[in-house]
């Protein structure tokens, strides 16, 4: 039988994780001492989900990163804004009906846009983490922005959250899903039915939000 596993990574971890990468390859992260037959048995059990996910990825339209030109559309909090390049004033970067940016500045336009996105993401994520920490009583030790394009969030064993700044391009309800998902990991470290029930108790439509991210996450890039 041909193995479905494209890459196996062993480390000092307690559980096994299956990741379908953006190129549709399957990466399996497993404990150091877990027998290969047990890993392959679990992968085989999840074969239907793996193949369905791989097919969905292969059918996605190829998208190029937004170009820096007038009218190009940029995502922010789930909405698209046309880029407007200002050529007669320096140091403009503001959001209104359009996303306006000066052609000239102390840094390249793409760098200035990236820094703007990260600042907005830091403020939004901090606010949403505070909101749900207050609502649930689940408070992380810290929050850090990550640069990840596929792993939207993670929770360290020490209670530190890492969340991708690129989520600021998604609707706020999708940001909330990732925030709640990682906060629940503070008390439940796996993706068991108990974990899913805990997330659903906070966000009853969590599964719909997760599906949105699976289907649209490739668009959250810059």
Structural description of this entry:
The protein is α/β, with parallel strands linked by helices. It has 2 domains: about 5-60, no CATH class; about 75-220, 2-Layer Sandwich (Zincin-like), CATH 3.30.2010.10. Helices cover about 40% and strands about 20% of the residues. It contains 6 helices and 10 strands; from the N terminus they run βββααββββαβββααα. It has helices spanning about 35-45, 45-60, 110-135, 170-185, 195-200, 205-215; strands at about 5-10, 15-20, 25-30, 75, 80-85, 95, 100, 140-145, 155, 160-165. It has a 4-stranded mixed β-sheet, covered by helices on one side. The protein has a 3-stranded mixed β-sheet with strand order 1-3-2, covered by helices on one side. α3 (about 110-135) crosses α4 (about 170-185), α4 (about 170-185) crosses α5 (about 195-200) and α4 crosses α6 (about 205-215).
């Amino acid at each position: 039988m041909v193995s479905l596993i494209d890459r196996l990574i062993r480390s000092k971890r307690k559980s096994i994780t299956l990741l379908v990468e953006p190129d549709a390859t399957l990466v399996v992260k497993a404990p150091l001492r877990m027998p290969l037959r047990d890993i392959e048995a679990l992968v085989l059990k999840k074969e239907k989900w793996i193949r369905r996910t791989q097919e969905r990825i292969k059918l996605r339209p190829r998208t190029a990163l937004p170009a820096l030109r007038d009218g190009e559309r940029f995502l922010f909090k789930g909405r698209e804004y046309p880029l407007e390049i200002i050529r007669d004033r320096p140091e403009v970067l503001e959001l209104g009906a359009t996303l306006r940016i000066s052609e000239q500045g102390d840094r390249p336009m793409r760098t200035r846009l990236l820094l703007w996105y990260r600042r907005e993401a830091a403020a939004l994520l901090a606010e949403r983490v505070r909101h749900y920490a207050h609502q649930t009583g689940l408070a992380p030790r810290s929050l850090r922005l990550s640069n990840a394009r596929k792993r939207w969030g993670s929770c360290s064993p020490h209670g530190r959250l890492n969340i991708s700044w690129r989520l600021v391009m998604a609707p706020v309800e999708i940001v909330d899903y990732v925030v709640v998902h990682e906060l629940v990991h503070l008390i439940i470290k796996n993706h068991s039915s108990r974990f899913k029930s805990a997330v659903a108790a906070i966000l009853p439509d969590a599964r719909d939000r997760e599906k949105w991210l699976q289907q649209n996450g490739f668009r959250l890039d810059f």
